[in-house]
């Protein structure tokens, strides 16, 4: 059987390898001049391959359409991913939060391992070949038109990705082709993307990383996201793992852009999530006793990063030169509350081009969850980010790509 896979990212390479292992003649078409472009930069160039956990954790971290992905995951789990790459000589390690990376910390090693597999199973790769249109007969896909000519095959697997990181080749043209042939495309939005803020404190704190902090996103007073982990201040606003994950829920808030303009969306940072207000107050009092004869500005070194201290002091309204033993209970309470409730207005998303993933895509109601075959066009299969399935950070999105690719490639 002749199979054409379109898009040589994580899903495309895995689908092509899987199909070729099943004794098919496979051609892999890639619009750029190399394979695995986005894979090379994922995880800051380290490649967070998958996660260390079970099915429950996986399902909890899928933001949308987790039921759809269940069958594909059970057929090709995170353990299968680790075993596969280990068999290819890519040794792995588990880091904080159960994130699994190559021991080498090099995404390039993952890409090279997959390239070697493509060669081993005689997958033909045609570079700089871009899909232009389908050739359809009686609701069946029989061929494709590209910028390099027309190709016919028995089956076709679309792995063209979303619209994030356009420099890697994910520019979204395939969505329009699929829409043309009666596929419903769910609104495309940036997912796992930094958040904009007009707060001056973000500019003052740019470059500061906070670890083990709490982060909530509020729509008016309704909490829509609440997590703990690492975040980073930037000149434009906020980023880092817990902020990126929060963005994938925030982008689904109804009329969110309108709410941004009316300052109805905010983030709340808990600098000391392990301590409740009472326990934190005791901690602050201990520090105040220790530095009772010093100025307030010199009393927080044990509690906060140096860069954060002047910003917190300014927000408390307490004179930085005031002696610690002169600080009133009300002033101390204000400090303690602020440490648990540092408010940052959120005014928008950074552009989709720098988002890690695209939210939205092909409506999964039109796709068979076990085989990844389109219910609209016979002989058409879809895998990876082109589908309307996405997850938080932590290796879950690459797992989705691998699981759906194996399902498509096998079938």
Describe this structure in words.
The longest helix has 15 residues, at 396-410. This protein has helices at residues 10-21, 37-41, 55-60, 66-75, 78-87, 107-120, 173-180, 200-204, 241-250, 256-261, 277-290, 309-316, 329-340, 396-410; strands at 2-6, 25-29, 50-51, 62-64, 92-95, 99-102, 124-126, 131-137, 140-146, 149-152, 155-158, 185-191, 195-196, 209-219, 222-234, 237-239, 265-270, 342-345, 348-349, 357-362, 380-382, 390-391. It contains 14 helices and 22 strands. The strands form six sheets. It has a seven-stranded antiparallel beta sheet. It is of the alpha+beta class and 411 residues long. The chain has two domains: 2-189 and 358-410, FAD/NAD(P)-binding domain (3-Layer(bba) Sandwich); 194-350, Helicase, Ruva Protein, domain 3, CATH 1.10.8.50. Helix 1 runs parallel beside helix 14 (396-410), helix 11 packs across helix 13 (329-340) and helix 12 (309-316) crosses helix 13 (329-340). The N and C termini lie close together (11 Å). The mean pLDDT is 94.
CATH architecture of the largest domain: 3-Layer(bba) Sandwich
Gross morphology: elongated
Number of domains: 2
Strand order of the largest sheet: 18-17-14-15-16-13-19
Rg to the nearest angstrom?
A: 25 Å
- Percentage of residues in strands: 25-35%
Stretches with pLDDT under 50, minimum 5 residues: none
- What do we call the CATH homologous superfamily of the largest domain? FAD/NAD(P)-binding domain
End-to-end span in angstroms? 11 Å
CATH top level of the largest domain? Answer: Alpha Beta
* Beta strands, count: 22
CATH topology assignment of the largest domain: FAD/NAD(P)-binding domain
The oligomeric status of these chains comes to single chain
Structural class: alpha+beta
* Largest sheet data: 7 strands, antiparallel
Secondary structure tally, helices: 14
């Amino acid at each position: 059987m002749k199979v054409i896979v379109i898009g040589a990212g994580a899903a495309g390479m895995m689908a092509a390898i899987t199909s070729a292992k099943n004794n098919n003649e496979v051609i892999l078409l890639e619009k750029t001049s190399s394979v695995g472009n986005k894979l090379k930069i994922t995880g800051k160039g380290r490649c967070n391959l998958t996660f260390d956990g079970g099915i429950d954790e996986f399902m909890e971290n899928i933001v949308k359409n987790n039921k759809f992905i269940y069958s594909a995951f059970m057929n090709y789990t995170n353990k299968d991913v680790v075993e596969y790459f280990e068999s290819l000589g890519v040794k792995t390690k588990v880091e904080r939060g159960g994130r699994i990376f190559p021991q080498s910390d090099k995404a390039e090693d993952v890409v090279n391992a997959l390239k070697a597999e493509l060669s081993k199973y005689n997958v033909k790769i045609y570079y700089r070949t871009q899909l232009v249109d389908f050739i359809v007969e009686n609701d069946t896909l029989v061929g494709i038109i590209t910028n390099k000519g027309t190709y016919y095959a028995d089956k076709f697997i679309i792995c063209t990705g979303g619209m994030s990181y356009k420099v890697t080749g994910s520019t979204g043209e395939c969505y329009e082709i699929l829409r043309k042939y009666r596929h419903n495309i769910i609104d495309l939005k940036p997912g796992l993307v930094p958040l904009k803020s007009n707060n001056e404190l973000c500019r003052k704190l740019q470059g500061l990383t906070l670890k083990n902090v709490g982060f909530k996103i509020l729509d008016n007073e309704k909490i829509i996201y609440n997590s703990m982990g690492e975040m980073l201040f930037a000149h434009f606003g906020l980023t880092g793992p817990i902020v990126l994950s929060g963005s994938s829920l925030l982008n689904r808030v109804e009329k969110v852009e309108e709410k941004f303009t009316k300052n109805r969306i905010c983030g709340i940072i808990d600098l000391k999530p392990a301590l409740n207000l009472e326990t934190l107050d005791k901690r602050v009092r201990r520090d105040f006793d220790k530095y009772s004869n010093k100025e307030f500005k010199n009393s927080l070194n044990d509690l906060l990063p140096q860069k954060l201290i002047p910003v917190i002091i300014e927000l408390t309204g307490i004179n930085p030169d005031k002696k610690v033993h002169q600080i009133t209970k009300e002033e101390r309470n204000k400090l303690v509350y602020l440490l648990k409730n540092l408010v940052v207005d959120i005014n928008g998303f950074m552009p989709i081009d720098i988002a890690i993933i695209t939210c939205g895509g092909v409506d999964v109601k039109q796709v068979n969850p076990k085989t990844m075959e389109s219910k609209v066009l016979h002989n058409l299969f879809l895998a990876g980010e082109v589908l309307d399935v996405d997850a938080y950070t932590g290796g879950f999105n690459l797992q989705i790509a691998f699981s759906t690719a194996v399902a498509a490639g096998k079938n």
